[in-house]
Give the backbone structure.
Amino acid sequence: MNKKLLIFGLTLLSIITACKEANQETVTAAPEVPFYWENASIYFLLTDRFNNADTSNDVNFDRTLETAPLRGFKGGDIKGITEKITSGYFNDLGVNAIWFTPVVEQIHGGTDEGTGFTYAFHGYWAKDWTALDPNFGTMEDLANLVEVAHDNGIRILMDAVINHTGPVTEQDPQWPDNWVRTSPKCEFNSYETAVHCALVENLPDILTESNDNVELPESLIEKWKSEGRYEQEMKELDAFFERTGYPRAPRFYIIKWLTDYVREFGIDGYRADTVRHIEEDVWTEFKNECEIAFSTWKQQNTSAVLDNNDFYMVGEVYDYDIISSGKRFDFGDVKVNYYDHGFDSMINFEFKKSANEDYEKMFSTYSTILNDETNGFQVLNYLTSHDDGSPFDKTREKTYETASKLLLSPGTAQIYYGDESARTLIVEGTQGDATLRSFMNWKDIESNDETKALLTHWQKLGIFRSNHPSIGKGKHQMISEAPYIFQRTFNKDDFSDAVVIGLELEKGIKNIAVGEVFEEGTQLTDAYSNVSAKVKNGSVSLDTPFSIVLLEKRSQ
């Protein structure tokens, strides 16, 4: 080898080695941000109304009759959710959990219960808990969805309906009398009149209080046989009842069927529907079986496990003002603490009222209550949903404020699909909750500049929240009232996090006091504008065109 070439090669190798050593000395890996459900951003969507990625499954079971406006299937499916995960839509929004409406097989027919002819597009009218409705997709689609979500650091919540079957139609016979009741209709003025009753006319109520052994409905047996899976389903049921020792009572069949999705696919949690209309001990039984199933899945899929969090369950007790009322829901004659019966969190119906208060009152109240060491609890905050006809901003005139209050508040945040894109909540000609359930406005996101700007606001706040557990799980403290600046801090085990946030500030040059959160000389970055500055005399000076500042210390 040429001597000069050899010397050049050795010199180049020495330079590369020195650079590597220098990098090892000066570059430190950013600490992994742990996931806490209290700080999660959960994106809630109607499966049928979000994204249609497979038009071949749009019509099934001859569901071709004309429906009332927005009361028929519109084509959204499981593949549509997966497609948007793969595109990065949820990661760009800082979403780390997705909750979608039930995808089990729905009644084949439709009903007309005063709001116009309706098919079960929403997913809450189960016909067969062991199968998926082909309008939504296949078991393979669901398995792929969960896998892709987990690969992207996103957890999956499914929707558990134990309280009722679907309505009775010509195509959908009523379940046997030892499975369901059809009367009396719930009156909601006591425990008895809210639990042992039918929610509405023609919605058969599962006898969840029964411990009697019952046979499967003949219609379900015939269905399974025609599909060639009767023997396998019976074998699994026999194994379940032998393992648990439970009676073959209606609720335990449904619990078995729902926990199969946990055991087989590794879903991370359930949102429980109509919680107060079922005996609280049933939820304890359900959560126990979910935990067993989740543990089994983790043991069999070690490489796919995201973290060491337990199975998550959040409950819907409709119109429950939990912040004011506390952990015990009052039926009028009985009070029930659902946190003692398997629930990690409850949907916070009060949040839309809290959002009418100023930022500081809302933030400080929530931080104090949720972080109480003795009586604290988790809540899932929302400002829009699929069945709340009085959302915080129905006319979509306070879309930026909605994002700031929801994503910067203590507690878990539930984004309802289209909150981030101002999807309309007022659709002419609709009746009831149908107006809240229009198809996702993807065209606006693609072509409307105002929608793009709004989505960017949600994305910046969402990503900032996902990077900082202190926002949802930490402690709040005001630094300055005018301009309004506050801090959030969080410490647990070996992890600590702190941020300083300013809202309703002057655009342009602004001085942001950082209190005692960040030391003198610390380099901080405003995650909203991506402008950086050093702490000097307890504050940072920034020149940005925005009225919001999200200060963080970034790892070098």
About this structure: Confidence is low (pLDDT under 50) at residues 1-29. The chain is about 30% helix and 20% strand.
